[in-house]
Each structure stands twice: as C-alpha cells, then as structure tokens.
Amino acid sequence: MTQLLNPQLVAHRAQLEEITKDLHELTIHIGHEEMSQTISELRNRLHEPFMFVIVGEVKAGKSSFVNALLATGEEITKVAPQPMTDTIQQILYGEERSELMVNDYLKKIILPVDILRDIAIVDTPGTNTIVDHHQEITERFVPASDLIVFVFEAKNPYRQSAWEFFDFIQSDWRKKVIFVLQQKDLMSAEDLAVNIQGVKDYALKKGMTEPNVFAVSAKQEQEGDHGESGFLPLREYIQTNITGGQAPALKLANGIATAGNINERITEGLSLRQQQFEADERFREDIQETLKDQEQKSYNQVDLLLDALLGAYDRIATQKSRELEGGLSFTGLLRRSISSIFTKTPSAQEWLTKLAASLEEELNEALQQRLNSGMVDLAGSIQQMAKMIDLKIRSSETILKNDHEIFSDIAERRENVLRDLQDQFATFINKTENFTDETLFPDKSNLSPNLAAGSGIAAIGVILMTVSQLGMLDITGGILTAVGLLFAGFSTRSKRRKIVEGFEQEIRKGRERLSAEVDETLKTYIQKLKQRIDDNFLRFDEHLEREGKQLGNLTDRHQSIIGRLEALANSLPQ
C-alpha cells in the first residue's frame, strides 16, 4: 500500500479521476445508461486495491479456489454440493472482520488478511447460472477489474458458456486474463497436461498471446500439501507481476485502458453518427437540388408552351391583319360596295364584324390546342419532380442502425422521422388539392368529381389543362373589344389607316398580355408547388438542426477527453 503514496502515482490517479468524471458526464449526456454505470463503477474503484475478478462456470471450484488462495483456514466463500454463490462477494482488506450486504446481489466481506492489502477479490456467480441478474451483474464488474482469473473444472475446461464469457471479456474489454484449472487432484498427470495444452490452444486461437495457465487443487492446498497443490507457481506469478510493489501502477494503467476502451466505443459511435448526419445532409441537399433542377425544367416547359402559344397567335394575327388591310383598300371597298348592291355580299361593316368573329374563333381554337398540349408536357415535368423526390426519400442511406450499441435511440428517432416523412409525402402526392391553386384554378367546378377524387400525381395533367378554361385567354376579348370599337367608328376612307394601325396596336398589346400572364401564372404556380413539396421536410430539417448541434457539443467534449487520456497514458513510466 505504501506505493500508493508515490506523489507521481497520486497525481496521475487524480488526473484519471477527473477524466473519468468528465467521461461519466459525457455518457450521461449521450443517454447510455449501461455505459454510464460502467464508467461510474470504474471511477468509484480507482481508490480500491488491485481487483481480481474470479469467473467461471457453476461447480468449477471457484469458491474453494478463493478460500485456498486467502489461506485463512476458514471457509470465506461457502462451498456446498449445490451452487451456493448466489451473490457477488467482494473481499477487501480491513483490520476487523465484517460483512455487509450492499444489495440483494452484492456482499462485501472485510478480512484482516495480508494479501488483501494489495489485492481485492471478487467472487462471482457461475457464467452458466440460471439465477436472474447474475450474468448482468458479473458483466458490470468485469470492466472495472484489473485481472480476470478464469477458473475451469480441470476435467472439462471446454464448456461453451465459459468460453462465450471469455469472448465477452476478450473482445469487449481486452482485460488481462489468467486461467486456473481447479480440482487437478481428480485427474492423472497425462490427462491434466492435455487439458492445460488444450486451454492454451483455445486461448491462442481466440487472440491471446502467451496465455498463462495454472493447474491447482484447492483441496490439497487446504490440506497442507503445498508442493502438489499448484498454488506455489500461482502465488509466485501474483507476487512477481502484481503484489510485489506493482499493483498501484498496474491498476492505474488498467483504469486508463478501460477508460480508453469506453472512449473508443464512443469514438466509433460518434463516427457512425457523424457519417449518418453527413449522409442526411447530402440527402437533404440532393432533395433541394432536385427541386431546383425540376423547377428549372418546368420553367423550360412553360417557355416552350409560351413559344407555341405566341407562334400560333402571331400567325393568326398576321393573317387577319393582312386580310383587314386588303379588305380596307380602295379597290376592296369599291368592289364590296358594288357587289352588295346586286348580290348578298355583306357590307363593309358586316364584313368587319365577321372578321372579328373569325379572329376570336381561330385564336381560341389554336391557343386552346397548343395550351392543352403544352400543359400535358408541363404536367409530366411536375410528375417527374414528385416521383423523383418520393424515390429519393425511400432510398435514403441508413448508416447508423437502430440496434447500435450506444446510439440506438438516436438511430430510432431518425428512423421515425424518416418514416413519417415517407408517409407524409405519400399522402401529399395522392391528394389532388395539393396540386391546385386557387389563384390559378379559381373555378373548381371545372374539375369533374371523379377527377378531384383521383390520385394527385395522375390528375395533375388534366387539372393543369383546366387553365385553358379560365380567364387567362380573356385577352382575346380585350382585343375584340378594342377592335370592335374601331370598327364601329368606321365611316370614311380617311379612317382606314387608323383602323389598321389600331388593330395592329391592340394585337401587340394582346400578345404582351398573353406572354406575361402565361409566364407569371404558371411559373408562380411552379414556385408554390415546389415550396409545398419542400414543406414536407420541415420535421426532418428540425432533426438535422438538432443533430448538428448535439454532435458538435459531443464531439468537442469527447475530443477533450481523448487528448487528456492520451497525455496521461504517455506520461506513465514505460
């Protein structure tokens, strides 16, 4: 115990205690109760002696081994034909003997035994015990242990449950382990040698280097046959490697290693969580880029539609303008005046009225045809946008699984947010009203009942075509009104030029209005629809914002602990 007073060791232990305190707070912040309890156990035991944890199957002779090792001549841990160790028994040094039941599963035994000045012994229930909670509690002691003493029954050291528990110790915690084959007095020397080698081979196969295997007989040791009991080599190993003044430094190194092990798990978990966050950010950026690209494609469809409309408009207007100019010429008017005397040829005024009517009819027919055709193309672009977004949502990458050791709750929360997004968007694209707009479609009566009840995606094309029934083409009425007024004032030849010029001026105005209204109306609709689609991601965006802040906070705290642990480990004597 005097080694614990070494100022350097005391300072190092104080640093480790501060680091484990911060690590404990980090695990609490993460919300991982089991890991938090593990680091709390480690922190609480920093001031305890070097801890041996005795593990093995029921009836492997663990209790007899502990009694023989302590060499008090008493039965410290009870031995009986049936499994007796129904609690974990932590055996510590004290000037006076006492026992304390900490809880239903943990008993502290205080003994004035010299070996306990340097080590503490934890005797655990069997790894194959059927009593509830024993395995769980045993596993809680393992992370805080300094040496695992694996006790096998010498006759059969190959039982599956024992080696499965060894895998847990080796893979999860990488603890220092020694193997003890108990009850060697029940075997021949030849068979015992075979099993000793078998345990070594098993351990080597599972990744250990130079496994230490001791064959002992607690019965022979307690009967005083120290030469044959096998405890002498074991005690020499303990003296050389642990109790000979090295225990405090070894315990400190073990504490650093265990804290580092927990930190590595957090590092791996945070790395996956960061990868998931970055993947989700890329997914969200991809959605926004897709919306932007599809918006532009829809704009291009509107531009093509507008070109087609204006082309038809210009062709018909030019034709009617020439017809008007030719009909108002001196020759044309003279011919029409003479013909009207002898035949049923309409008068100039009647002819102008029919010209206006044919202009209206031809414009409406041509524009309606091109509008319907163009709107189908636009609908296809919008359909593609909705379908692409839906596919991207369903195929978003999952990196952090909901069975993750540390961050399963975070992964599950993300999964729930994503599932809700999928359901919400599926509902969104199947509601017709999400693809209509009162400013674009003020007269809902134009939609048939069957259409309004149909799939939103399937109905878009027909819904959009209803725009041709609305006020957008009222510009023809504006043209005809202006032209009609001009025609009504026709009386003398001197007004012929004014009529043609007025007609062409109104045609230009109508063209500008057609272009502006189609462009503004449809592109505004596309912008609003894009925003409606993007609004489905509000909860996902909230998740990303919250996750980004939490990750930043956790990473900063974690990096601080990593740096301090590395500095402390490097400061220890090599």
How far apart are the first and last residues' alpha carbons, in Å? 21 Å
What Rg do the Cα atoms give?
A: 45 Å
Overall number of strands: 8
Spell the H/E element sequence: HHEHEEEEHEHEHEHHHHHHHHHHHH
Q: Please, what is the average pLDDT? A: 82
Structural class: alpha/beta
> What is the helix content?
55-70%
> What would you call the quaternary organization?
single chain
Q: Kindly report the spatial arrangement of strands forming the biggest sheet.
A: 3-4-2-5-1-6-7-8
Uncertain stretches of 5 or more adjacent residues:
1-5, 443-473
Query: How many structural domains?
Result: 2
Largest sheet: 8 strands, mixed
What percentage of amino acids are in beta strands? 5-15%
User: How many helices does DSSP assign?
Assistant: 18
Cα shape: rod-shaped
Describe this protein's structure.
The two termini are 21 Å apart. 32% of the residues are buried. The chain has 2 domains: 49-245, Rossmann fold (3-Layer(aba) Sandwich), CATH 3.40.50.300; 269-563, no CATH class. The protein has 574 residues and is of the alpha/beta class. The chain has helices at 7-30, 33-44, 62-70, 134-141, 160-173, 189-205, 218-222, 226-229, 231-243, 247-327, 330-342, 348-394, 408-429, 449-452, 456-465, 475-488, 496-535, 538-571, and strands spanning 50-55, 88-93, 98-103, 106-111, 119-123, 147-153, 177-182, 213-215. The chain contains 18 helices and 8 strands. An 8-stranded mixed beta sheet has the order 3-4-2-5-1-6-7-8, sandwiched between helices.
Produce the secondary structure layout.
Blueprint: H1 7-30, H2 33-44, E1 50-55, H3 62-70, E2 88-93, E3 98-103, E4 106-111, E5 119-123, H4 134-141, E6 147-153, H5 160-173, E7 177-182, H6 189-205, E8 213-215, H7 218-222, H8 226-229, H9 231-243, H10 247-327, H11 330-342, H12 348-394, H13 408-429, H14 449-452, H15 456-465, H16 475-488, H17 496-535, H18 538-571
Parallel strand pairs: 1-5, 1-6, 2-4, 6-7, 7-8
Antiparallel strand pairs: 2-5, 3-4
Helix pairs in contact: 1-2, 1-10, 1-18, 2-10, 10-12, 10-17, 10-18, 12-13, 12-15, 12-16, 16-17
